[in-house]
Amino acid sequence: MTDNATEPVYYVISDLHIGGDEQLGEIDFLEELLAFLERLETTDEPAELVINGDAFGLWEMTGTDGMAKFDRLTEWYPGLFEQLRATGGSIPITMLPGNHDHELAAYETYADRLSAYNVDLVRSESVTRQVGDRTIWFEHGNQRDSNNRFEDFGNRYETPLGYYYNTHVTSRAGRLSERGRFNWLKDVQAVTPTERVPHWLLSKYFYREMNPLLRYAVIPFLLVFNVSAFLAVTAGLDVIGIWTMPVERTDALLEQLGLVGEAVHFLLVLNAAVAGVLLLAGIPIYFVIRDIGTTVDRFGVFETDLTVDPETPYIEAAREIFAEHPETAVFCYGHTHRPGITEVDNRLLVNTGTWLKRLHRRDVITGVLPPVFYPSYQLCVVRISAVPGGVSVEFEEIEKASPGGDEITRTERLLTLGRTPTPELPDRSIVTDERSGTEV
Known about the structure:
Blueprint: E1 9-13, H1 30-41, E2 47-52, H2 68-76, H3 78-88, E3 93-96, H4 103-106, H5 108-115, E4 120-121, E5 126-131, E6 134-139, H6 161-176, H7 197-209, H8 212-223, H9 225-239, H10 248-256, H11 259-299, H12 312-324, E7 328-333, E8 340-344, E9 347-351, E10 358-362, E11 372-376, E12 379-387, E13 390-398, H13 410-415, E14 429-432, E15 438-439
């Protein structure tokens, strides 16, 4: 038995991605982060803060190399580093490298520089901590992602696929973001999985960058495109004598509406004509694209997906760790930016989420308009502690207002009416000492 009052309490955060070229250097959550660190500075608990990877966005800082990046960080965010020094003087702060700040493991000097701010940099892929009679396994999680895995951890010259994406796409977005009508391109790092980036770009172009007159002229057509396509198909069947359109009742109803009815009739006829042309052109284009895709697959040009499965590799990794180290109660990771708790073999798999803005895709309620990507923040802090009979894992969400109307237009809200996302964090979970199950 242990005295829970004297047992260490672990606060875990990850995926802050602090730093980056130009607009990526803005920290939307700096005020909340400083307040959290100040709170830990004065806590009476025997606490330790674990920063579980990707504290910094070193990949996105393309203008400098090596230790010069640390100099830039301390120059840009002096208040943050001074607060780390103050908090680290009261409680231990442990930092693990992630993939975006893998250079922390590649240069020994990083450990020396961070120690001056009372941060203990562990230049390893994982670390364990004791909690009661059990242990916690901490890792960032990128080693389970084939696109961001380092086969030779700590090698400063190794560059996985994710490195190129972030140095050539994400960092460039930070440099170009202010050129738009609205400063939105920098949020490309919040789009997950990355296969959604083309849809997100189309969405932001349509709702933000497109000439407003053109957008509002196109919206009515796209809203009723499905109806127009149906009318075009049935009109074609009517022409070739397969099926007769029941238009008499519709025409009678529209005639009763006077000028409004005539306008609706004209719009439907025009839309049906355009939809018919698009369908005629689209059918052969579809088969050509499909044939190209079949050929590409046959040659095996693209053998893997761009992004990793956000769950399965981590469930498998947790099972391996739990089997090799039966005393492990919690497998804690980050990387995928999806906060959650999953029960695995009567233990807990915990994802610490991200402090970056998150984007939630929502399809429009009708028509063929681009989807809407709602922004939100979930500033996650995971608290892991010993409790009577086991180990407790609970999420704390540090309050931060979600972006307002400057990011989501009235048009987007109207088109997704009733589909606004309401992300929630998991409830508290407990791993029992009997190891016969978890209690939620």
